[in-house]
Amino acid sequence: MKKIFTSAAIALAMLFTANTANAGINFGVKGGLNVTSMSISSKVLDSNNRAGFFIGPTVKFTLPLVGLGIDASALYDQREAKLAVDFDENQYVTKQTLKTQAINIPINVRYSIGLGSVANVLFFAGPQFGFHVGNKNQDLGADFEWKLKSSQFSVNVGAGFTVLKHLQLTANYNIACGKTGDVTIGNALGSVASAPFKKKSGRTNAWQIALAYYF
Known about the structure:
- This protein is mainly beta and 215 residues long.
- The chain has one helix spanning 2-19; strands spanning 24-40, 45-62, 68-73, 75-88, 91-114, 119-133, 137-141, 144-148, 151-163, 167-176, 181-185, 199-214.
- Strands 1, 2, 3, 4, 5, 6, 7, 8, 9, 10, 11 and 12 form a twelve-stranded antiparallel β-sheet that branches.
- Strand 9 (151-163) and strand 10 (167-176) form a beta hairpin.
- The two termini are 34 Å apart.
């Protein structure tokens, strides 16, 4: 995973350097809302979607080719999911809120269609590199623990529009590639839970709505 991050950073730096002379560059700030969709590989666990937020600096490059551009951001991202653990006849052992905090770096290639001088519609897609911060091991009670991976690779697909060259509103779906973390059971309930449940992986996707202002 580190090799992927390093290669992506080098490729991005080379691309930005090569196009700086001919590209329009705009810096700005982006923030928004995400709704986490969490899936766990076990029928014993049930999760509900919860809202979170993200905010951070952003930059966009307008390439010489008509309509094409690249944007990149460094976002503080907080997500939540409500998790319930059930062993027998819907009697929940515990209900807890899982929280993830990360620095996410989305890099999107976008294509814009002009609607006159005041607005344009855009479509975008690209990879996102995430680094989890804060508490990576969360006690869920009833001898359960949520263990986050240190990093996460995901993909964004979305659309939006720009108004007056400064305001940009977008919506996208963030798709996790691989697990986000594991839910594990301790020794106290080991005799109750079946062996396959000792460790179950979880994945967090998210719908995101963002508002950006470019200077």
